[in-house]
Write a structure and sequence with these properties.
By secondary structure, this protein is mostly helical. The protein has a domain of about 45 residues. The chain is about 40% helix and about 5% strand. The protein has a two-stranded antiparallel ribbon. Helix 2 packs antiparallel against helix 3. The longest helix is centred in the last third of the chain and has 18 residues. The termini are far apart. The model has no long low-confidence stretch (mean pLDDT about 75).
Length: about 90
């Protein structure tokens, strides 16, 4: 029996890659303990790209330089590994 259009739409399950930020003081739960409706901060690809671009444009103060470079590197890795997007080289 062929599927109706409504059933076909329900059959298509969209899988999206999301990144979960682990906040300071929060421990990483085991993979089997992570639930879809769990609290936390989940970022879509566009969110990660936007934050990365903002970090690239930001000129940190001297005391922020180390944290800025670490964050920039982390977001480059997230884009490269989680989303298969190679960010442009930082000049």
């Amino acid at each position: 029996m062929p599927l109706s259009m409504k059933q076909k739409k329900k059959a298509k399950v969209e899988t999206r890659v999301r990144t979960r930020l682990i906040l300071p003081g929060e421990e990483m739960p085991a993979a089997e303990d992570i639930e879809e409706n769990e609290g936390g901060m989940f970022l879509e690809k566009e969110d990660v790209r936007l934050i990365y671009q903002a970090l690239r444009e930001y000129k940190p103060a001297e005391r922020e330089a180390h944290v800025h470079s670490v964050l920039l590197e982390e977001f480059e890795e997230i884009l490269a590994i989680d989303y298969d997007e190679i960010p442009p080289a930082v000049n």
